[in-house]
Amino acid sequence: MRTYVNPDSTRDSAAVLDNPPPAGVVVVPNGGFPEPPPGAPVRVVRTEHEECGGETRVRLPGPLPAVAVRRVVCQACAQAYDVRGVEEVGVVEGPPPSRHGWIRDPHSRGFRILSLGLGAALVIGALALIQGGSDSGSDPVATPASPTPAGDGAAGGTRADRSANLIRQSSFSLALPPGWQRTDPPRGATFAAAAPGNQADATLWVTNDPKLSFAAFQAESLENLRSLAGSAEIVDQATGPSADDTVVTLAADAPPGSPAYEVTLRASGPYRYYLATTLHPDAGSAATGGVSLIQKSFVPTGTGS
């Protein structure tokens, strides 16, 4: 159950500190974390610094779990410290639709595009921040352990790893869910990974073709999915002012007992991205959540420069 709090009470975290910072101490906003995108639900958590007794409140994007806060900058003494415990204060709902244009309207297509891009960037940025800004290809990031129902375990009954990996390559970034393992991508693909027990998988194709319009890319992708799954349709589309701002989701009409196929189409500069995910019919909640994490955290970064 979510607890909703007054947004005004969390707007300025320094205002809720029991002990104001001493003179000369520069307070780092939001504990050093990037601010969530405007209009989206915000998760507010608090943590105490044992050395100085100060309290720091951090605003996170709604989908990011409280356990992601592992190291913050104290708002009382401005010292970074490792967090030993985090208390969730509540969730702040975004503001209602406004008359002042798409940028203030959470239900507009433009706002959805902006929120998707900012949300994915914040997830990637927050994960990197938590790890101290490492530039390695895959950085472990703590994520909450979910209850594992029957059938959710990995092959052989082994316990899945509880940390996600931040995958950063020259043309894309994404978060690899807990327990997922990278696999050899099929011919022509750039990236592939599978869930424990092969209950789900993801494959990314990246094509450098500046002459391929997004409309033509979408038509080709529909045909590819149709040939694989027997059907294909556009289930979600957020159209922006350019191809780089457009996100299209395709899905097959899978009959009961068949794998569920989804494809996310993106563009960045001359690159076209085809992110395909498969969820098998016996997949549990962990595999389903893993597919969602990959889709939401995927950020195209190829510009051709």
Structural summary, described in words:
By secondary structure, this protein is an alpha+beta fold. The chain has 2 domains: 7-108, no CATH class; 138-147 and 162-300, Mog1/PsbP, alpha/beta/alpha sandwich (Protein Transport Mog1p, Chain A, 3-Layer(aba) Sandwich), CATH 3.40.1000. The chain contains 3 helices and 16 strands. It has helices spanning 109-130, 214-229, 285-297; strands at 42-48, 55-61, 71-73, 80-82, 87-92, 138-142, 163-169, 172-176, 181-182, 191-194, 200-208, 233-238, 247-251, 260-268, 271-279, 299-300. The termini are far apart.
List keywords for this structure.
single chain, 305 residues, alpha+beta, Protein Transport Mog1p, Chain A, 7-stranded antiparallel β-sheet, 4-stranded antiparallel β-sheet, 3 helices, 16 strands, 17% helix, disordered N terminus
Global shape: elongated
Strand % is 25-35%
Structural class of the secondary structure composition?
Answer: alpha+beta
> In the residues, how many domains can be counted?
2
What Rg, in angstroms, do the CA atoms define?
A: 21 Å
CATH topology of the largest domain: Protein Transport Mog1p, Chain A
Instruction: Kindly state the percentage of residues in helix.
Output: 10-25%
Do you know the CATH architecture of the largest domain? 3-Layer(aba) Sandwich
Total E-strand runs: 16
CATH top level label of the largest domain? Alpha Beta
Distance between the termini: 47 Å
Main pleated sheet: 7 strands, antiparallel
Tell me, rounded to a whole number, the average pLDDT.
74
Order of the strands making up the biggest sheet = 9-10-11-15-14-13-12
The CATH H-level superfamily of the largest domain is: Mog1/PsbP, alpha/beta/alpha sandwich
Q: What's the total helix number? A: 3
